[in-house]
Amino acid sequence: MSQIWSECLNTLRDSIPLSQYSVWIQPLKAFENNNTLSLLAPNFQVLNYINKNLKAQIKNAVAQHNKNLKIFISIATNQNSQNTQQHTTPLFEDYTFDNLVLGNANQMAYGATKQIAENIKTSPYNPFIIYGGSGLGKTHLMQASGHLAKEKNPNIKIIYVPLMDFVRNITSSLRHNTIENIKTFYQSADLLLVDDVHLIAGKEKSQEEFFHIFNFLFSGKKQIIFTCDQPPKNIKSLENRLKTRFSQGLNLHLTPPELEMRAAILLKKAQNKRININLTEDTALFIAGHISSNVRDLEGALLKLKAFIDFSKINHDFISKEIIETALGDLIKPQVKNIDINDIQKEVAKHYALTISDLSSKSRKQHMVLARQMAIFICHELSSLSLSKIGKHFGNRDHSTVLHAIKKIKKKHLESIEIKNDYELIKLKLANL
């Protein structure tokens, strides 16, 4: 580095705000030759900002140390691309919006992510942070935005990096004295995607460099999307200046998928060429009813089922619930719960498109009778109430009426596939309340 420029940096550090200095002045490369000081900006964004906002301050700082130096500010032509390309990670081919299953759990995050991808230079949601537990589809959503943004604008530069890769890059660059190259690389992004940003907590040097990169991109209106396992304000050992910047954008919580969404995920993933097994809606609901944690566990269950079917040489067209129980073993356990009778009435009424009061009414319409008998039967199975107490919740019906309803459903359960499916679906939904 030019000795004069090194002295100028000290002057500039004291005369302009630190945020401006670190984002715009520090990345400049200086070369001194024959009374000429050449300052090279890493990209046009830095060059334009310097010329518009900081050129006068730079000239004044240089004049204080050498009035005879002529100053030229231009763009660097050699960005050492071979050294920086290794610090990017490609987007996953399958993580697109087309491959995303939508449900109540991710509807809002999907809408926001897609809107950002379609309006990458003008979206008001910057930074955008998707947070939630592991295996809920945060990375899929984030990378889907990258695929769509690239489709809309093929010339856009997208950088995706898991946070720990970023930390390793910073550590390596400090060891080899190439920190400015790494910062320049990340600052060249039009869309920066960072996975698991919470892992930066407690890593002081990485936080410092990340802060400068963030400021640079944000001030240049470049889009930033992160995933995180919790709201940024709750991350321990994260500098307050990063917490405030992360929290100033749109932060959306991704919750675990509901039963129907989990079943839809299973059906979609079962059609994948890598798995390619024939699930029905009933069998998908059966698996989803027992695995409620996250998408990764659903994928693991599918792979386990596929392995069992392949190695047992079972016909893929005849995957029964009995086969699933055998294949998945301890993943499929009967869920014995003491369910509140009000929840049972609510779920049965919803299933049959009735009101709770309909279940207690004196109506003898066939549809209402079936729903009432189904609710009584499930109450007998899943609650600890006596027959007479169950009857009180259904319009003060007596012991014998309740017993009759239970017997009727037992008989219909054996005779009618439709009623059996109704019963199993309602139980699944109650098990996942």
Automatic annotation (TrEMBL):
Belongs to the DnaA family. Its main location: cytoplasm. This is Chromosomal replication initiator protein DnaA. GO terms for molecular function: ATP binding; DNA replication origin binding; lipid binding. Keywords: ATP-binding, Cytoplasm, DNA replication, DNA-binding, Lipid-binding, Nucleotide-binding. PANTHER family: CHROMOSOMAL REPLICATION INITIATOR PROTEIN DNAA. Residues 124-257 form the AAA+ ATPase domain. Residues 340-409 form the Chromosomal replication initiator DnaA C-terminal domain. InterPro entries: AAA+_ATPase, Chromosome_initiator_DnaA, Chromosome_initiator_DnaA-like, Chromosome_initiator_DnaA_CS, DnaA_C, DnaA_dom, DnaA_N_dom, DnaA_N_sf. Domain I is involved in oligomerization and binding regulators, domain II is flexibile and of varying length in different bacteria, domain III forms the AAA+ region, while domain IV binds dsDNA. One of its GO terms (cellular component) is plasma membrane. It comes from the Bacteria. It is found in: Cytoplasm. The keyword Acetylation does not apply. ATP binds at residues 135, 137-139.
